[in-house]
Amino acid sequence: MGQPITVVEKPTATAGIVRFEINRSLTGMGHERYRSLADATGHRPPDELARRLFERGGIDAVHIFSNVITVDLARGADGSGLLEVIQGLFIHYSPGVLPPTDEELTAEAGSAAG
Length: 114
Fold this sequence. Notes:
Blueprint: E1 7-10, E2 17-22, E3 31-34, H1 45-56, E4 59-65, E5 68-73, H2 82-87, H3 102-113
Antiparallel strand pairs: 1-2, 2-5, 3-4, 4-5
């Protein structure tokens, strides 16, 4: 469930910098900078994406402006797998994982209210 993001990797002139453009804005007109996993504390989509990128490893910094994501790679790291992390941001259930049924969701809501 969820919608995959269309991601295009764009070339950069600087080694160790990887840039992606996506088909939706994550920040509106704001800039978001993350120097470490500890900086990604919010609950908005750019915060979640930064967390996922840092958890992948090999990342020194992430900058997100609207639909452009710029990643500073750690020395010796490569950008393999980053595109897939970004594509999966709004995917809630991976292939082979069944989403909960209506009955399960109703039971969970009932037990949380009680």
